[in-house]
Structure formats: structure tokens, C-alpha cells
Amino acid sequence: MSDVDSLSSSSELTVGDEIPRSLDKIASLVDQRIQDLFEYETLRWSSLDESFTRPLTDLMNFALAGGKRLRPAFCYWAYVATGGEDPEMNVLDAAAALELLHCFALIHDDVMDDSPFRRGSASIHSQYSTYHQGLELSGDPQRFGDAVAILIGDLAFVYADRLLEAAPLKARQIFSELRLEVNFGQYLDVVGTARRSYDAEFAAKVAIYKSGKYTVERPLHLGAALAGAKDSDYSHLSLFGIPLGEAFQLRDDVLGIFGESDKTGKPVGDDLREGKPTLLYALAHDRANERERELLDELFGRENLDAKEVETLQEVFVATGSLALVENRIEELTELAITELRLGGFDPIATKELESLAEYIGRRRS
């Protein structure tokens, strides 16, 4: 029996655990697939020019440095849920492709936001800026770092495609739609940040398209396509995946403002400094009194916010009831998703594991 087979046949039900145990199992398989890919590619390209070793190694290390592998898990359990049997390498390839696409999005996102840290370490563009300075190369270190990071992100994008070359047409079509959605969602995020004027409806749209659909719904669809699922299965998976994906992004928004940096891997308050278009902010601005609105207008989006000013904004989100409303919304969306999942008529073991993932998303703290 293969490692992939054992996930289905001997899965431990995990509702109530802090991190679902099956998530760790899937993560280890996906990590090994990514490591095998890049070890081979590094050997292949370094034989042409030794300088190719560094970006490939850095991309592999970035991919393996952290992350919970939620997208691969949703892909795998949707495969099982919709009747997939005897999983072959194409399931792992699709799972690894989702993770590499996530790396592409994170690396480019850090460039756009000029974020110095990711997953507790220097972001890719920061690493290469430091590398440029250390060797006293010509040109601007930041521009060099940004350029190399964009290229490394592009490599992740291309390798994600390569992993899906042998997948059925339906799966590749879903993956293409996923990529379009995440790019358009990121565009909404950039535009919303620049406008500094948005409502709850716009914030919800950003949450769904920037992260929600590509974190939950489309990975579910991808797994279903690999299993040869019925058309009705996709609809049921969407009823589960769309609200849960929105809950995922709302939890990310809360952690971006109230999270602990040692758990999130990014400085507390970065979303406040960047002026991110979140439901938290939209609700707070709408419900604020005159003084609270003045504080929001003065501090939100200021790049040099200090710890005290971050704390002041946190207090506004609490005082206006914005935080409580978003927490309630996360709970409602998670419960809705689980209810729809149970109505889907899917494989019972996979249903239980997907329910476990949903509960984890609703309560996670990193």
C-alpha cells in the first residue's frame, strides 16, 4: 500500500484537534514531491550554468519553509469524497502544483506590499536585496531584489503548470480558472488599497477572489476533476467551499491585525500599514463615532505606524464592534459550509476530514 493510499484507508478522524492529523500526512507527501522536483531541476539547470542553482534552491526552500498545505488537503479529500480510488501520482502532482502556485502568489504579494518578512524569515525580495548589497553589485539593491523575486515567483508559476501537464482536460481548465481568479482578486486588493474608500460588499468580494476561491473551492474542484466527479458534485463542493473560503480570508484579516508575529510569520499590523481593504476596516469605519473615525482616517494606511498606533487602531476595531462582527461572520460561514458539506452525500471518511479542515479554518491562530 502506498503512502497516498494509506491516507484514505487508515485515516484518523480528527475533529477537535488543533491541527488535523491528516493535514500533516498530506503535507509530508507534498513536501517530498516538491523536494524531488527541485532536486532534479537544480541538477538539470546547474549543469548549464552554476548560477541557476541559487534561485531554484531558494524557491525549494521557500516552498518547504512553512505553510499548512490546506489547498493540497482540500484537493485530496475532494478526490476521495467524489469517488476517487487508488490515488496515483497525479493527485500528488496536483497538490504540489497548488502549493507552488501559492508560492508564486506569496512571493509576488511580498514585492507588491514591500513586505520584509514571510513565514518568519526574510522575504525573497529582501534576501536578494541583501545579497546585492553584500556583493556590492551595481545598480539599486531593492530594484534587483524585486526583479529576482518576480522571476522566482514566475518559476513557481511555470513549475505548477508542469506538474499538471498529464492531468485530464477538466482539471487543467479548473486550474486555469483558479489562476485567473487569484490574479483578479489581487488586482481588487491593489485597487482597494489605493482608493482607501470601500464598503463591506467590496471587502467581501476581495476576500472571496483574492484568497477564498483559490484556497478552498477550486482545490476542491481540482480534486473532483481528478476523480471524474459528476456535475452535481461540483455544485455541492461550491456550496461548501465558497463560504468556507470567505471565512478563511476573514480569519487572515483578523490575524493580520490581531495575530502574534511568532505564529503568523509576519509583523503585527502590516495590513494596517498597507491600508488593506478588509471587512474589519469597512465595518469599523461605518460604525465609528467622530473621534474613532478621525483616528482611522489619520492612522490607517500610514506606512510608519509604531506599536502604540497599531494598538490604538486595534482598540478602535474592538470598540466599534467590528472585531466581534467579523468573528461572528466567520462562525456563521463555517457553520454554513459544514451544513452544506453534510448534505453533499460524499464519502463519509472524506466528509469527516473536510469538516475537520473547516473547523480548523474557523478557529486557527496562525
Automatic annotation (TrEMBL):
Which cofactor names does the annotation list?
Mg(2+)
What domain of life?
Bacteria
Any one GO MF term held by the record is: prenyltransferase activity
Name the Gene3D superfamilies for this protein.
Answer: Farnesyl Diphosphate Synthase (1.10.600.10)
Q: Highest lineage ranks of the organism? A: Bacteria, Bacillati, Actinomycetota, Acidimicrobiia, Acidimicrobiales
Stated family? Belongs to the FPP/GGPP synthase family.
InterPro entries, alphabetized: Isoprenoid_synthase_dom_sf, Polyprenyl_synt, Polyprenyl_synt_CS
Q: What is this protein called?
A: Geranylgeranyl diphosphate synthase, type I
* Keyword tags: Magnesium, Metal-binding, Transferase
Q: Does the keyword Magnesium apply?
A: yes
GO BP term (any one)? isoprenoid biosynthetic process
